[in-house]
Amino acid sequence: MPGIIQEGPVEIAIVGGGIIGLSLAAGLIKRNVKVKVYEQAKSFREIGAGMAFTANAIRCMSLMNPDIVSALRSGGSVATSLDKNDPNDYLRYIDGYNKRRKEDPSYQQMLYKISAGYRGFEGTRRDQFLEALVKVIPQEIVELRKRLDTIEEKGSNGRLQLNFTDGTSAQADAVIGCDGIKSRVRELIFGKENPASYPHYTHKVAYRSLVPMDKAIEALGEYKARNQHNHVGPNAHLIHYPVANQTMINATAFVSDPNKWPDDMVTVAPGFRKDLEDVFADWNPCLTALIQHFPERLEKWAVFDMWDYPAPYFNKANICLAGDAAHASSPHHGAGACFGIEDALCLCTLIDQINATPRETSATKKEVLSSAFEVFDAVRRTRAQWLVNSSRRVCDMFHQPEWGDESKWIKAETCFEEMKDRFHKILHFDYDAMIRQTVEEYAKKQPVGKLAIAQHGAIDVANATPAVVVN
Fold first, then answer.
1. Are 326 and 311 in contact (CB under 8 A)?
2. What angle separates helix 55-64 from helix 431-444, to the nearest 10 degrees?
3. Would residue 208 show up in a list of annotated catalytic residues for this protein?
4. What region does 83 belong to: left with phi over 0, alpha with psi -120 to 50, or beta?
5. Cβ contact 11:172 at 8 Å
6. 54, 159 contact by CB (below 8 A)
7. pTM, entire model
8. Average pLDDT, the chain
9. For helices 66-74 and 19-30, what crossing angle results, to 10°?
10. What is residue 464's predicted lDDT score, i.e. its pLDDT?
11. 3-state secondary structure of 98
12. Count H helices, E strands: the chain?
């Protein structure tokens, strides 16, 4: 029949085999999409620190592929609260600095609680979750030791060729960059000279540790150890929550740093427990006791994000960014990975729509995929970049110097109403509405036709301009 293209289903290449890349792959596999994952490391590896997912993010995982949730749970995820008298999870903000009762120096005043609902947050170890998630993906789907060099368009049909630094190459109809905060795909899209290609220093450093639960209880007491708490104070804060089936806590101390980070390409430096002992020397004795259970030698993580120069768009034709590659955030909302999961669900929905919708026009796969990725950009970018901004803002509230001045405690505490509103956007995200919007916006672009081509650097099909090369 004239005007109908029989090109078959689309093939997707995912660059990056972290939690978001593998979750996206699992969602696409569930929808019978042909997909390959290219990971630069020689094996799947995440640092053994903890992470947490909101109940909404876990529901998004389930909608993509229930096996993702099974992997999360088998990796030892637990609710970040354990209170037999209250089944709900809470974000708890507690005075970590002041000794408000002279007769009880270890007393800490609860400043504010934000309800996250039943199992509103689940904490897990990154490495255990990734290890379980890898088992969801068929071995033939993943290629390791594949460091991306360039992407170029091959032929008149818009098919993309990924060239790797080992001299090999692969082809796909679309490339989705899930390659994290130091994304090579992002650099290829925006260019080496564009500051939006790179993350920038937030002037915060993080020290992470996993502490055995018995030691945490010894330092903090039973209730605080078994429930998430964020200890705020002047120019620093320390957050902890249970992981590994309540056998450990994940504890992270964040410290303000006015200095310039020496090397933007190396974001981890040697650190020492002594660094934290000095910073927290005048804080509540519960925290100084907890820090004694950190190892003597630590890694000091520079916190980078995309706040200074946010990505102007998330796709360039049939190349797309997702997760930290698109919108790397500081971790102060604890929601960066959650937003990456939302991205993945949106992309699964779009690619499912592509394969389910008959293409009864002269549209090519490139045009259809570019159109879908433009919908992704429209649906996801504003929300994702809000998170980057808001995460910076809430850290400023955690680190207010006013926490150290008794005459300004009331002023400092006025931040919590704003904080509650910000967390509401995360905890109560309407993912069903996102799916409906995604489907509706994609439908508006159909049939694609010759003129409905991608916005950002796309080929002008009508005038047959030369192929785009991204390198």
1. yes
2. 50
3. yes
4. beta
5. yes
6. no
7. 0.89
8. 90
9. 140
10. 30
11. coil
12. 15, 21
Take residue 348 and report the two structure tokens written for it. 């699964």
Question: What would the two tokens of residue 205 be?
Answer: 């450093």
Structure tokens at 407: 């005459």
Neighbour tally for 222: CB within 10 Å: 12
pLDDT bucket at 461, cuts 50 / 70 / 90? very low
CA Rg, the chain, in Å?
Answer: 23
End-to-end CA distance of the chain: 38
Task: Give the burial string for 413-451 (b: 16+ CB within 10 Å, else e).
Answer: bebeeebeebbeebbebebeebbebbeebbeebbebeee
Both tokens assigned to 264: 């933007």
Spot the catalytic one: 184, 208, 359, 380. 208
119 counts as catalytic: no
DSSP E strands: which ranges in 309-362? 315-316, 319-321
* Whole-number pLDDT of residue 120: 80
Kind plus residue range of the DSSP H or E element containing 470: strand 469-470
Catalytic residue (one of 38, 207, 241, 442): 241
Tokens 């993509």 belong to 64
DSSP SS3 for 341: helix
Q: CA-CA distance, 309 to 408, in Å (whole number)?
A: 34
Q: Classify 338 as helix, strand or coil.
A: helix
Q: Which residues pair with 242 in a beta bridge?
A: 249
